[in-house]
Give the backbone structure.
Amino acid sequence: MSALLFETGEWNFDTLKRTYDAIEEIAVGEMGLDPYPNQIELISSEQMLDAYSSSGMPIFYHHWSFGKRFARDEAMYRKGYSGLAYEIVINSNPCISYIMEENTMTMQTLVMAHAAFGHNHFFKNNYLFKEQTDASGILDYLNFAKSYILRCEERHGISAVERILDAAHALMDQGVNRYGRKSRPSLAEERARAEARQKHASDQYNDLWRTLPTAVARPAGPGRIDTPRGAPQLPEENLLYFLEKFSPQLRDWERELLRIVRNIAQYFFPQRQTKVMNEGCATWVHYKIMNRLYDLGKISEGSMLEFLTSHTAVVFQPDFDDPRYSGMNPYALGFEMMCDIERIAANPTEEDRRYLPEIAGCGDALGALKDAWANYRDDSFIAQFLSPHLMRKMRLFKLENHAAENHYKIAAIHDERGYTEVRRALAAQYDPGSRDPNIQVTGAALAEDRRLQLTQQLHNDVPLDEREAKAVLGFIADLWGFDVELRGLGADAQLAFSYEIAGPRRGALAAA
């Protein structure tokens, strides 16, 4: 029997390095995973809370909302109302994995397998991340964004910068290209262009413009665009992009702030579409690696029991009538689907052969999993690979709730007639086309009163929350500088609601 990698819960850097090498030998040497180079960093609980507040990134610009989130999370953690993640992993090259120094050595082993190889492989190989994110450039771009926003605060004032960032953050979910305007945007090129624009504006800057009264109309000067160039191509789904390019009021530095938030929103967009797959992949990988380490005699039975306790808690799925139920646990659903694909590839039933003939009995479970990890997102993955066997095992059924009725209706269960409906309904819950509001810019009277018209195509005739919709419209009016209207159209193209906001809401942007 091989010597144990560690015998107690205590760890040091030699133990971490020895264990990492053993994990890498299994993950890369035996399983054939293809991760980015790894960078493992140990952080304290306070540093983990700080990472929470800035979306888990090691470098981020300052904003009041991050401090608010840090204070809330810290209070919840100190009072024992919530725990902390064992790790945070970043989609970058090299892939950075933050692990808690309070973890036992068993947990350090688990999170290195989970994050440094499971998530890492998924980040590098999934098509959404390959097409829509620049893992090699994100850290340099965030460093540029942080320094650029600090310079804007010094030159224009914190309140002026925060006002633009507040509006941009409110629009982040509607500030992405869902189908990609171009493949794999280069953040290094974005940074270079932004620095060139800043240098040009600095070279052309004349401090006399600052001394003129803001209420007096003045000719266009450096850093000011009174009439946008070109005509917008409508409809446009990316609201931040449209405002950045065509707002009549924004100055150059304000447009650059929108561009920064837009690029960051695009970077995170694939993670919103692959939560089940990403966590399922990482959980399945760490489960296999930990069991393999035990089989090789590298971890003890005590460590294995500690691992299984943690793993079982992670993949726990409460029943629908359990007070703890809050939807499908992505760890539970993802892990069960990965295990089910492994079963179908190795030991399929006749039912499996009918429903999943592409992988049933192929004999290459890891190959089938790698293909799924690379070529699907959550909704398409569930629609393709959720088997009747797993529906029965998880006791899935479809529940309908119609506004016109005073009771729920069980529309489909796990039987021959319900399998297709259950699978379709579950996949639809992860479809960004039905989950996110479909709001587009459909009109902009640039040559007239400059009124901006937005249109929402309602999904299942579900309207937006009126209070939140009007609040976000206020931010849009601030950025646009003129009146904004949002119209909601139902499935029959009939007007369902209409909200109007006069802009600008908090004074002319030219006076900022």
Summary: The longest helix spans residues 252-273. The first strand starts at residue 38 and ends at 43.
